[in-house]
């Protein structure tokens, strides 16, 4: 799959990692289509990137996904890749009374159900292409969780598992399945994260990740070096150590 020549749909492409990847892929020659819930930031992103296309979409709305796919595949019949980047991360207090289950519901709907629903809706279209791709965005927290973001971490672990199964199920089709697992990156995903000195600079992450994604042989996983301690924690026997670094006592 040559991503530099693809027509790529990127959810949540109006900010953070999604916008960074969208702009980097467009610079390599890809045709890029972004979605987001915030119309103002979509407009600003499109104004800064002539040739990019954008749609307002709440990926947690199941009916909206169906309507959107019907529209985008007609308006962009060359669409042959999707990057499931849209996501939310909300710090939780499991000891609160009552525990806020609305946060749980919204996180699962956005981070897990949305990629599954959007893939299901797009799959007939993607399978008709000579070469196509589904790219999921998980997280280093899929492998070693952040305890006070327990639902976010759980959805990313689920996306990792789902991606592995999807790859196997589509092995005899034209659809490549790729997982991109970012480390902590300097974005506004959570309050103060952009200023966190432990976070990987966004531009450095995007450069390394897009280089890996656009390798001559399509990778199964896109793993920048900064995420490897989490990705390999179980295999190397360092899970408890890495867990303690993320979740100090």
User: What is the name of the CATH topology?
Assistant: Rossmann fold
Shape: globular
Helix content: 40-55%
Order of helices and strands: EHEHEHEHEHEHEHHH
Estimate what percentage of residues fall within beta strands.
5-15%
- Which consecutive residue ranges, at least 5 long each, have pLDDT under 50? none
Please identify which CATH superfamily we are dealing with: NAD(P)-binding Rossmann-like Domain
Name of the CATH first level: Alpha Beta
The averaged pLDDT comes out at: 97
In the CATH classification, which architecture applies? 3-Layer(aba) Sandwich
Number of helices: 9
Q: Tell me the major beta sheet.
A: 7 strands, parallel
Strand order of the largest sheet: 3-2-1-4-5-6-7
User: Strand tally, please?
Assistant: 7
Q: Quickly give the structural class.
A: alpha/beta
Strand and helix layout:
Blueprint: E1 7-11, H1 16-27, E2 31-36, H2 39-48, E3 53-56, H3 62-75, E4 81-84, H4 101-127, E5 132-137, H5 150-169, E6 175-180, H6 202-213, E7 221-222, H7 228-231, H8 233-236, H9 239-246
Parallel strand pairs: 1-2, 1-4, 2-3, 4-5, 5-6, 6-7
Helix pairs in contact: 1-6, 3-4, 4-5
Question: Key features?
Answer:
Rossmann fold; 9 helices; globular; alpha/beta; 7 strands; single chain; seven-stranded parallel beta sheet; 249 residues
What does this structure look like?
It contains nine helices and seven strands. It is of the alpha/beta class. It has a single domain, classed as NAD(P)-binding Rossmann-like Domain (Rossmann fold). Strand 6, helix 6 and strand 7 form a beta-alpha-beta unit. Helix 1 crosses helix 6 and helix 4 packs parallel to helix 5.
């Amino acid at each position: 799959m040559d991503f530099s020549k693809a027509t790529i749909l990127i959810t949540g492409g109006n900010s953070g990692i999604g916008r960074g990847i969208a702009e980097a892929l467009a610079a390599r020659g890809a045709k890029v289509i972004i979605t987001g819930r915030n119309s103002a930031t979509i407009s600003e992103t499109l104004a800064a990137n002539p040739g990019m296309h954008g749609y307002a979409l709440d990926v947690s709305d199941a009916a909206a996904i169906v309507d959107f796919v019907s529209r985008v595949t007609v308006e962009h019949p060359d669409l042959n890749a999707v990057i499931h980047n849209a996501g939310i991360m909300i710090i939780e207090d499991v000891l609160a009374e009552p525990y806020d289950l609305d946060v749980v519901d919204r996180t699962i709907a956005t981070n897990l159900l949305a990629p599954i629903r959007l893939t299901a809706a797009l799959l007939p279209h993607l399978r008709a292409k000579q070469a196509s791709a589904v790219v999921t965005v998980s997280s280093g927290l899929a492998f070693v969780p952040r305890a006070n973001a327990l639902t976010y971490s759980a959805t990313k672990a689920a996306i990792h598992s789902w991606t592995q199964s999807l790859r196997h199920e589509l092995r005899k089709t034209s659809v490549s399945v790729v997982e991109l697992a970012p480390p902590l990156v300097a974005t506004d995903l959570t309050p103060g994260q952009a200023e966190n000195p432990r976070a990987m600079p966004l531009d450095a992450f995007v450069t390394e990740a897009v280089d890996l994604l656009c390798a001559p042989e399509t990778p199964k996983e896109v793993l920048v070096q900064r995420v490897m301690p989490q990705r390999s924690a179980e295999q190397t026997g360092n899970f408890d150590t890495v867990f303690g670094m993320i979740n100090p006592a």
